[in-house]
Structure formats: C-alpha cells, structure tokens
Amino acid sequence: TLATPDAATIESVMSTTITTTIKIARNVLEPSNHLLFDIYKPLGRCVAVVDDKVDEHFGAEIDNYFAANNIEFTKLVFSGNEVDKGIEDVERILVAMKKYRVGRHEPLLVVGGGVIADIAGFATSLYSRNTPYVMLC
Q: Which of 25, 48, 60, 124 has an alpha carbon within 20 to 30 A of 31's alpha carbon?
C-alpha cells in the first residue's frame, strides 16, 4: 500500500476470490434426479434462459422435468448464434428477470453454452448486484 505524504491518495493492491461448485452428472432431466429439484423446489419456481437450438432438441424434456416435479417454470428462449450476440439480448434478459421478479438470491437457470452462457452470465452479474445462476450444458 502506498500513500501520498498528506494521505489524500492511497494506492492499494486488492484481490477477490470467487468460489464456485461444479457438478458433473448424467440424466439431470430425469424427473427422479434431484439435482435441479433441490435448488428450485424450495423456491417454488424456476426462471430459465435457454438456447434456441437446445430448446428444439430438449425443450419438451426440460418442460417435463419441472412439470413432473410440480415446479413453476418460466422459459426464456434466446438465439445461441454468435452473429446474434449483443447487448440487446442482455437487456432483454434483464427486463425479463425484472418482469418475473427474480429475487436477488434466486439462481437463474442457464441452459446451453457459448453465447447463452455469455449473455445470461453478464445479465446476472448486472442484476441486483450479482444474481447467482446455475449452468446446465
């Protein structure tokens, strides 16, 4: 730490530690699998950002998981194409999170990878000072 002689300016080096949990699991969307259930059932609902191509292939399975576990499910589908990636989608996610009143400590479910991970991760970092998210890919 350095300070000017009159202590009007202080220069300091700081660091931040970020801790995360990574779980590797199979058959996550089987209704009997409790990985997502344990996170979202106590909240009574799940708000998710889903890649459009993932939704085409697994959308019904995702819907079925939450329906079978009696968890209210709100699905927000976005393009996962690199050419469509932009701040406008981040803004749309933020507006949707506000519309659905996502709580500050309520994890957004992000389903996909790449572009969806980028835009949804950025949106959660901006929303209510760093809302958590769960990444399913």
A: 124
